[in-house]
Design brief:
75 residues, alpha+beta, Translation Initiation Factor IF3, four-stranded mixed β-sheet, TusA-like_sf
Length: 75
């Protein structure tokens, strides 16, 4: 999946993946896609809930070798 920006949040524990995601998505224009890579298992629920709460769209998620990947479209 294509993205406009990639955020490496690997090795960060809650709540840092969400905090960094918010900061990164604020730098994008509406409709652009942020790709987030995280290793914190809680990030899956946290980022999904955050996207819903803030009106952004979680387009896709994937897991590869313990790395959770998220594609979030800015509202």
């Amino acid at each position: 999946m294509n993205s406009d920006k990639m955020l490496d949040a690997k090795g960060l524990a809650c709540p840092l993946p969400v905090v960094r995601t918010k900061k990164s998505i604020d730098e994008l224009k509406s409709g652009q896609v942020l790709e987030v890579h995280a290793t914190d298992k809680g990030a899956k629920n946290d980022l999904s809930a955050w996207a819903t709460r803030t009106g952004h769209e979680l387009l896709n998620t994937a897991e590869e070798n313990g790395v959770y990947k998220f594609w979030i479209k800015k509202a």
